[in-house]
Design goal:
With 166 residues, the protein is mainly α. It has 5 helices and no strands.
Amino acid sequence: MTEPTTFWLLRLAAPGPGVVRPAAALLRLGCVALLAWIGYIHLHLWQEGYRHIPTNGPLFLLDAVAGFILAAVLLTWPRPLTGLLAAGYTASTLGALIISLSVGLFGFRESISASFVTESLTIESITTLALINWTVLMATTLRPPARGPRPVAQPGPSDSDSRAVL
């Protein structure tokens, strides 16, 4: 791997700066709340009858559990990698809803008038954008690893300096 690629991968998993700006902290807490809200909506819909829909029912439960887990992870481990994973989860959930509304997903087509559809579209869009913003903010405010001056190699005794004892 090249050094810049390695540096960026390490920055994604590195902790944020020592002093987190209040805006970044508030944005992260907002993202945590939105992820938990998405999890709650999916759990509620699963309990209200979506569990009986083949394939989609178990996916609703999985989506609920993933939302709660990602909210907890983002709350306890505020790293850009966590934000990136949560943004991917939210974007894929939003994409699945849009596909289900337009052409159907796994044989089930959602209606825009169904409960929580417009709320989900709004919440998932806002959450995706907020998570992307927080991730970029955290990744760009990370300091590069501290590198001191490289040690200078001390010249060792050379062949001309050493005298063989005969």
